[in-house]
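Appendix B, example 12.
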Amino acid sequence: MAYSIRQINDAVHSDPRGFVQESDEAYNQKIEAAARKIADNLSKSRIVLLSGPSGSGKTTTAKKIEAKLTEMGINSHAVAMDNYFKTVDLETAPRNREGQIDYESPFCMDMDLLNQHFAALDRGERILIPKFEFARQMRSDIKSQPLQLGRDEIAIFEGIHALNDIITGRNPAAAKVYISARSDFLGDGGEVAFKRTWLRLERRTVRDAKFRAWKADVTVRMWANVRRGEKLYISPFKDNASIMFDSTLPYEVSVIRAFAQPLFDHLRVSPDMDRYEEVHQLAAAYPLFDILDESFVAPDSLIREFIGGGIYDD
């Protein structure tokens, strides 16, 4: 799908509140449709596997599906697969072609433990979900959380590798969901003026700056490796999904511009950086969008995952 920037700007000025509400309602309808399909699959499996590339909105989508299932009378539990990262071992950690630790690799994950937990939950057994401490780059079993599913309960595991064959091959009955920003924004001549992948980069850059105290320079320098990892480890498995989401919100660039543009305007990156031109094309496209004040954005909107102020914030 694609959206006209001119039509977006018209809506920003004529009826900003209605524009945002209409966009969010369209996304909520996708949530409801997914929840119904997941509920129909409950007799086959209590596990939901939700995957998507970085910045796609996996966490909020998982929690919104969780809330919708609860409304339908089905208790569910959203679980972040990031907690199944292995403690980083400098000697054995997978490396990218530059020799740096490849944090995008599925081999950073404890796939054996994940598959053991999926099987145990489907049998109604109790598991202990570990806690990965990113600051210390290690997994803590002391901070683990117990989870046991009742007869009509569901666990939604969300993470970039949730649809990898290593997982889906051993859990064929699980409901499988893939989510990504899949819409471009078009200029007056019908040309792509703001790419779908840029949505995820700006989301990630703003989120990292606000919640992880990362400078935008750091996030942007990592982007080439993130994209490489997506092509190697995520996109090849998206067809394993039976449910697909486009997480693009028509109004989001107009809202996030106020947060993202200052970060991109003050980047300190050299021209020899991978994807340097792409990053500067993104920054140059911001003036095409009129700014929409975040006060119009509901607390349960997906975009709140990246700009803050949401009901799903940890």
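The chain has ten helices and ten strands. The first helix runs from residue 5 to 14.
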